Amino acid sequence: MKKIFFILIMALTSSAFSQNIRFEGTVKDTTGVGLEMANIMAVNQQTKAMDAYAITNEAGKFILTLKSNTTYTLKVSYIGFQTFEKSVTTGTTTMNYPVVLKEGTQLNEVEIVQEMPVSVSGDTIIYNSDSFTNGTERKLEDVLKKLPGVEVNKDGEIEVEGKKVQKVMVEGKDFFDGDTKLATKNIPADALDKIQVLRNYNEVSNLKGLENNEESIALNIKLKEGKKNFWFGDMTAGIGVGMDDARYIVNPKLFYYNPKYSLNVIGNVNNIGELPLTAQDYFKFTGGFKNMMRKGGSSFNVVSNDLGIMGLRNNQAANIESTFGAANFSFNPSKAWTLSGFGILLGNKTEIENRTVSNRVDNLPDGTSQTITETREDFTRQKSNQVLFKLSSSYVPSEKKHFDYDALIKISDQKENTSVFSSLLSDIYTAKKQNPFSINQNLNYYYTLSDKHVFGFEMQHLYQNEDPFYNANLETLPFAPLLTGYINEGAGVRDDVTQKRFVQTNKVDTKFDYYYMLTPKSNINLTLGNTYSYQNFDSSIFQILNNGTQNNLTDASTVNNVNYAFNDVFLGLHYKFMTGKFTFNPGFSVHQFNTNDQQLGTSNKQSFNRILPDVYALWQIKKSETLTYNYSLTNNFTDINKLAQGYVFSNYNSLFSGNRFLENSTSQVHSLRYFKYNMFNFENIFANISYTRQLEGIKNRALLVGVNQISSAVNINSSFPDETLLAAGNYGRSFAKYYKANARVGVNWSKFNNIRVFPDSDSDPNNNPTKIQTTESVSQSYGLSFSTNYKTLPNLTLGYNFTVNDNFSDVIYVDSPTVTLEYFFLDAFSFVSEYSYYHNRNKSNTIDSEYDFLTASLMYQKKDSKWEWKLSGTNLLDTKSLDTNSFSQLGGTSTFSSYRVQPRFVIVSLKYRL
């Protein structure tokens, strides 16, 4: 097979480069100054096709690869200059062709009209969609993967210049703000005209240039003319057969756009593992809400009490039934006022079968060591229904005023039942359920008084209710001696224990900003801010006895009734100035912190002040080449979850108690980022390195007995800091119009400290000997990819990923080559197939597993026809399971998991396109 792929690549390469010549030149103005970012295209006069295009570098140089002995129309354009157009005939050797542009408006007598595949206008990169498609594309994701400098990861997230795209818009209107996956998976490829990458994006024009937006990127989709003021979309329905059950999918999509309003409706019901959103997507769905306190210098994050209900690692499990419905709208009652929002309903029924082997080596205080190995099989059934609603209002009556209001509501109903069969414990049966609710509101007002004075007011409120319920039925509860009032009913009677929790959060962030422009290139920013949070945490444990009665545990060690208030008032000062190619933005914030937790009949109050500096620096080496440095000193505070001192079940074999006397930790973060996007040869380079050092970190004090764990939260001594070093780099290039190559490397080194407790008796674990346990790990990842993009020939994408996870107790290696074949032929047929291979192994060869996946689809659609037939097969090699590896810093446990996936199935579907 490798030989076949190699021969095919060589054949495709030779066909592209045969009888080609190098055509180079310069574009200058009448004074001899080179013009950067000028557009050049060569149109074949015989075929009327554009054979090559280029964009000049900083010296005005360009290079084209053209056919020999062919006549072209050479067209050169640049904003503010007259268009240059002339007929040229190539020879058989390299040609050099200088172009001089005259200032003035563009000429009108242009006989040949062609679209530049890529053009640049200020901070916006504009891709012409049709220039990169070959006929096999069906959705936005398929087109984005072919664009120079753009990547789409496995989660459907879009990356440009190594940065994640934060927002996708269609015709300037938000498309499910806060998530890019719905856009990449659902917007039809045939509706796309232009794809605009908006760099340095800030939707508030009042703050443009005042804030540091270099990391902010948005995407705007321009539709083809036939898709505006008309309904468009498609309706897909399919049925099929699998190895174990019938398969089905129904997937309607409807879109409508005009300047005044827009409406998008998406539905999906299937049992083939096609998930528009996963449970993880739901919880991380931000709705476009930003971190308004990012310059505040302190961090107070509300932790989710989600019980660890398993979500899918991807779209593969033993069985998946998914129901999805979503609607997104935008309406302009006037030119100044925009109303928008969306609603999403997500329902999943999932069966997960997982086999896990865990190894831990304990180095005991007496110098000896012991190895704990557990083999466990989990059978899980999940059912979840989740709802998202967002409503937004934006009122911009003039360039001086901007008013926003947003509200995001999340409602969820989740249930999970698991049967666990362990080699070290008895059979265990657990049940989890929760109905969390949250509403997040955002109010912003920005006012530009004059060229020198800009004001901003931002307020965000979070209200959240969580009610996790956990039940475990097992032969013997390992923590029974610690739970005062727990009844041991003797041998042969199983323990049935349940815990209820109720956590309520009210959190308000308020910030007032004043910007004073000292000069056109410098300003002072004064910030007055406040974060206030009030939380309640209630929990209780009860036991169901063998006679059916309920035994409530009422001791203080098993009950929590905690109130916790956190308040942070701060004043910040930042000075931003530009000098030459450099931008500096140093500053600091002065904080007054107050905390108060009430539990066990007493109050524990803390109050202190702190000054927290930060620095931002940018070196604009060239127009599209930058080096950025960031430094911050941050105070990190825990929320109520780690303060509640009564015992809380993390799992059937894990018990946790908080510590009301915890103090904040301090983090120093340094990051350096390099970026270069060379439009001259479509070369994309970025590299990033960051170092984090955390002092007085809140860590676990853990007693590990076999596979059981009793832990509490403590502040660890500053002599034992946690450290993390992250480094990543990427090199990508598109060349010769037909090829795109990419290489990526990443390294993650971390060192964490925890406190291990070693039992020497059956007494209270707080009296047992302890020692600081330091665990280090290094993970490395390497990736290569190469793809072709022909209009009439088969196209290949070859990829290879290699990862090394070294946790200093074991080393795991994973190889993963992939091959994708796309071919549009006979003006009606599209064939797409993807093959992936995975090889997991460890250094000692005790783990060695291999598996692969093959999917394929054949589509038939005549030109201009509204109907499309599709035959698709999933898991055609009938792979039984997937393998994963993980490492826990607490105890240094290395885990190898294998989980079953859906068997082979084939679907026949019919799509009708509006």
From TrEMBL:
Q: Which UniProt keywords apply?
A: Receptor, Signal
Q: What InterPro entries does its record include?
A: CarboxyPept-like_regulatory
- The keyword Transcription regulation is annotated on this UniProt entry: no
Q: Give the signal peptide as a residue range, or say none if absent.
A: 1-18
SUPFAM superfamilies given in the database record: Carboxypeptidase regulatory domain-like, Porins
Q: Which domain of life does this protein belong to? A: Bacteria
Could you identify this protein by its name?
TonB-dependent receptor
Q: Which organism is it from?
A: Flavobacterium proteolyticum
Q: What is the lineage of its organism?
A: Bacteria, Pseudomonadati, Bacteroidota, Flavobacteriia, Flavobacteriales
